Amino acid sequence: MKRIFLFALCLVFVLAGCGQKEQPSTDAKSTKTVFQATITEIANGTMPVTPVEGSLELKSSDCFSIPIQNMPASPEPKVGDVVEITYDGYIQTIYPSTLGKIYSITIVEKSK
Fold first, then answer.
1. Keywords in UniProt for this one (predicted)?
2. Residue 95: inside a domain
3. How many structural domains comprise the chain?
4. Which of 37, 64, 71, 82 is most buried by its number of CB atoms within 10 A?
5. Which pTM was predicted?
6. Which domain holds residue 53?
């Protein structure tokens, strides 16, 4: 009788551990990825940028085309500035690569 009781008790604990757990949100709105890049040119409403050394984005492409419309008006970006780009994590693998939704772009280091 004790064995049946112990078996039933163990079975309850095992089944309780198999319960459905809350899954992390996969909503694209909640995903934000940040990287830094150097502005290589400013022309025709875009800024081609090169990810800084060690950036995971550099493994995808050495050049990203970033629309200037996502850049705040002040301070004015210049070639050689290092910018920090926050985006949704999506990279379109064309050349130059583009990003999905860009949330913000800020200058973190001015060129000399």
1. Signal
2. yes
3. 1
4. 64
5. 0.70
6. 30-109
- Residue 64 resides in a domain: yes
Element of type H or E holding 105: strand 102-109
Mean pLDDT of 54-73: 89
Amino acid at 85: I
Q: Which residue has the tokens 């926050």?
A: 86
For 41-57, write each residue's pLDDT tens digit. 998 889 999 999 999 99
Query: Mind giving me the DSSP string for 11-49?
Result: HHHHHHHTSPPPPPP--GGG--EEEEEEE---BTTEEEE
Any domain includes 72: yes
Give domain status of residue 19, yes or no.
no
- Which residues, 6 or more positions from 43, have their beta carbon under 8 angstroms from its beta carbon? none
Say what the pLDDT of residue 7 is: 55
